[in-house]
Automatic annotation (TrEMBL):
GO terms for biological process: coenzyme A biosynthetic process. It holds the Pfam family CoaE. Its EC number is 2.7.1.24. This is Dephospho-CoA kinase. Pathway: Cofactor biosynthesis; coenzyme A biosynthesis; CoA from (R)-pantothenate: step 5/5. One of its GO terms (cellular component) is cytoplasm. Belongs to the CoaE family. ATP binds at residues 11-16. Keywords: ATP-binding, Coenzyme A biosynthesis, Cytoplasm, Kinase, Nucleotide-binding, Transferase. InterPro entries: Depp_CoAkinase, P-loop_NTPase. It is found in: Cytoplasm. It catalyses: 3'-dephospho-CoA + ATP = ADP + CoA + H(+).
Amino acid sequence: MYAVVITGSIATGKSTVSAYIQQLGYPLLDTDVLARVVVEPGHQGLAQLVERFGPEILQADGQLDRAALGEMLFGNPAVQAEVNAILHPLIAEEVQRGLARLEAAGEPLVFIDVPLYYETKADFPGDEVWVVYTPEAMQLERLIERNHLTEAQARSRMASQLSIEVKRTYADVVIDNSGSLTQTYQQVDEQIQRIQT
Ligand SMILES: CC(C)(COP(=O)(O)OP(=O)(O)OC[C@H]1O[C@@H](n2cnc3c(N)ncnc32)[C@H](O)[C@@H]1O)[C@@H](O)C(=O)NCCC(=O)NCCS
Ligand SMILES: Nc1ncnc2c1ncn2[C@@H]1O[C@H](COP(=O)(O)OP(=O)(O)OP(=O)(O)O)[C@@H](O)[C@H]1O
């Protein structure tokens, strides 16, 4: 089984590329989704976060208050490191479990969407890495628009990850998502064709 890691920085277009890949029928493990699984009520990820940060990170219904944790995490490297130390091993375990299931099912080509791949590399396997890229000015603009953030909030989220300009230099493949969606999808088609031949 060949595993392609899809990464990028916040709002550069990983989910857009991942959605297209799923539409093509390929299996995809999304660590943003798995990160939600490990903080469901009853899961040890949530219990450990509450133990460390207190019940103020919970909503009245007992679910994680994502906005509250996001406010604490983005822009505070110490909190970010603590949250990562609690959640990343649990997320990595879920990825391993997912990969084992896909391998057993005989899938030849699978994808893993890992936003923080280069920040947490040791935890996540992959045969090649695609970086979904847009210039930073466009990343900022799309992030502000999608999440309804102020420019300062958006910049603080961008600063909590490695710069996309750095990540692009590490990539095996750069998917340039600064043009139309059609142009992005075409690059994905070309790369899948390359892998399959
Ligand atoms: C802080 C949380 C609650 C904010 O939730 P929210 O719903 O607002 O955002 P969402 O989960 O959709 O993430 C949006 C994007 O933020 C960025 N991001 C998320 N977590 C982190 C982090 N620890 N460090 C840097 N950037 C991050 C990623 O680019 C991600 O795609 C949530 O992101 C979280 O639990 N993060 C810790 C787990 C993690 O590292 N997830 C990333 C996948 S490994
Ligand atoms: N080629 C494009 N043209 C115009 N808008 C786009 C394009 N690609 C993505 N977008 C928009 O930019 C925003 C960010 O894209 P997306 O959500 O795919 O990024 P992401 O990398 O998955 O972000 P995150 O790290 O936060 O999960 C979204 O609102 C999306 O609709």
